[in-house]
Structure formats: C-alpha cells, structure tokens
User: Fold this.
Amino acid sequence: MRVSLLLLLPACLSAGDAPKSVNELKAFFAANCVRCHGVDGSARGADGKKLSGQDFTDARDMAHKKDVKLAQTIRKGIFFGKVMPAFKEQLSEADATALVAEIVRKAEKGKAIAPAPDAGK
Ligand code: HEC
Assistant:
C-alpha cells in the first residue's frame, strides 16, 4: 500500500492536487462532460436527442478502445480542444485513469452519473 502511494505521488504533484475521489470525479463529470456525453454517458439528452459526444454505454463501440487511450483523450481533448476540450489542467493522469475505470467503463443507459449525496469527499 505504502509503495503504491509513493508511485502515485509524482503524478499528483505535477497536477498540483490530491487525487480526486470517485465522488469528486462523478461531480466533475456532471459539471464538465454531461453537455456532450449526457447525464448517463449515453450521449443522449433528456429529450432523447443525440448530443455531440461519444456514447460510453455502447458496449460494441467501447470494446475496442483502450483505457490508456481514453484517459489520454480526456486530458488532451480532441482536435486541439475544438471538438472536445482538454482537461489536463483539471485532471492528473491518475484522475483521468480513475475516471475511465470508474465512470466511462461503468456507464449504463438511463443511470445518471452523479455523486452519492450522503458520501463525504
Ligand atoms: C464539447 C463537447 C464535449 C465535452 C464537453 C466533452 N466531450 Fe468527450 N467527446 C466529445 C466528442 C465529440 C467525442 C468524439 C465522439 C466520436 O468520436 O464520435 C468525445 C469523445 C470522448 C471519449 C472517447 C475518446 C476515444 O478515444 O474514443 C472520452 C473517453 C471522452 N470523450 C470523455 C470525456 C470526459 C470525461 C469529459 C468531461 C471531463 C468530456 N469527454 C467532455 C465531446 C465532448
């Protein structure tokens, strides 16, 4: 345990912040990603209209994507931030990796991505 914390340290230091908890990442998603990726990650609006982002709940579409690439895209953005903004200022590599594992990979159609109201930070 202690060793893995030490390994994570440089990534945290370079982003200037402590790693975000899963709840913080969910709040981050709700604030920054929903307008293109939908509340549930399906890239559909409340009215069912297709938004501009990738559908994370489409298993066939997501199957061939690698976690490392997904995390990279989140930090770098797409097409110089014009298609999707870059989030490297807000998310460390560890944060982006956790966001992929805990949110993008667990997105389910109709299940809103939101922090648990009773959970602390
Ligand atoms: C301005 C709209 C917009 C915002 C905001 C946005 N995205 Fe995207 N995102 C896109 C578009 C467009 C794509 C590409 C869709 C496609 O290829 O069909 C995409 C693709 C992705 C992909 C797939 C990348 C790949 O390699 O296939 C991930 C993961 C992703 N976004 C995560 C996020 C996360 C996490 C956030 C919030 C922190 C976010 N996006 C915010 C528009 C957005």
Notes: The pocket of heme C is lined by residues 29, 32-33, 35-37, 52-54, 65, 69-70, 73-74, 78, 83-85, 87, 99, 104 (CB under 6 Å). The chain has a mean pLDDT of 90. The radius of gyration is 15 Å. Residues 43 and 77 are 17 Å apart (CA to CA).
